[in-house]
TrEMBL record:
Domain Enolpyruvate transferase: 9-424
Top-level taxon of the source organism: Bacteria
Quaternary structure annotation from Swiss-Prot or TrEMBL: Monomer.
Involved pathway(s): Metabolic intermediate biosynthesis; chorismate biosynthesis; chorismate from D-erythrose 4-phosphate and phosphoenolpyruvate: step 6/7
UniProt signal peptide: none
Protein name, UniProt field: 3-phosphoshikimate 1-carboxyvinyltransferase
Keywords: Amino-acid biosynthesis, Aromatic amino acid biosynthesis, Cytoplasm, Transferase
CDD domains: EPSP_synthase (cd01556)
Residues bound to 3-phosphoshikimate: 22-23, 27, 166, 168, 313, 340
Amino acid sequence: MKKLTTTIRKGLHGQLHVPGDKSISHRSIIFGAISSGATEVSNFLPSDDCITTIQAFRDMGVVIERSSDHVRVHGAPNGLKPPRHPLNMGNSGTTTRLLLGLLSGQHFTTELFGDASLSRRPMRRVTEPLSQAGARFKVGEKGTLPITVFGQQNLKTLNYRLPVASAQVKSALILAALQTHGESTIIEKLQTRDHTERMLKAFGGEIYQDGRTIQVMGKPQLIGQNVTVPGDLSSAAFFLTAAALLPGSEVTLKNVGLNPTRTGFLDVLNRMGASVDVLNEKEQVEPSGDLRVRHSHLKAIHLSQEDIPSVIDELPLVALLATQAKGTTLITGAEELRVKETDRIAVVAEELTKLGARIEELPDGLIIHGQTALNPQMSDRADTHGDHRIGMMLAVAALLCDRSLYLENEAAINISYPDFFDDLKQLLCEEGTEER
């Protein structure tokens, strides 16, 4: 159990390099593994989820060397090897869903399993469209892990309209399409993050996009690349939130990824009246820049279905920001939150209510009444519920309290940000966290 920092009177100050982007780190391993030659990855995120992806490919015969945040992947363009045992997906939904697409076109059978949290997450949204291309699966009774993938080397091209806005499902279909002869068409419901499309193009693949329509050519000749992973905007979001909320704060986050499909949280901050400046922008495969944020007085907003895909991972933080904003914030069209690592709609409402927030739960979102003083109510215990983003959101919420708050199941934060508490302490003007 971790005692969280409270009563920060002077705010947060300084500069910080946040860890590498999790989504891009995953994909750098996947594309490196199926390309010719070596792929060098700098600023790789060594979190539990990303290590899961590395281990899965090692288990399939790919040689991967890692030293801290630098990874070298020796590609296996002639095909992956059958693993000797079922592949452990841990808590990583990204690894699982993307591998379902990749493994569907291999020449061997693979079983995937995960931890209790991942084993509750829906997978038929991936397996059903893949089945239309000829892929074969044995799926758990509730449409969840464990799943057996019966690899098929004669997959048909896809022509599929996505019923959900999901970058993971889209990426799985793209990875399957690469193993077909001909051109596949994928049409998104709403535009989602495009890291897979950008990386595929950088590795030499043929992929074209016209609005929400994506065309993928099968059987490309992919070549290993040098990949520099920008800082993860979803990780930066916790410090952006803390600095925006705490009087006296001014923080600069260095070299953060600014992919336009990921900057929804910056748009939300601007709409709420936060002071956020983008500095030193760089245009590469993935655009990046520095983010400077200062404390601001915030106002309520309304987020609807069209806003959700680009801010899906940051919605717990939007809810926290809304507790301090002037007015009532409404979030709708976010039913996808119900099938994340936890039911994030229910958990956000539960945990922030413990701190005195006034929140109403909707089937697809939340109503948050602002300008509420936060402090532990009936208990000084908060719980991550095994969800890394809930845990970090609560650590930021604790900065607004003037009484001690203890976080249970804090190890979940290692899934995406192992050094989170050290980095938070670096920006604080008073004593940081302590163990109990």
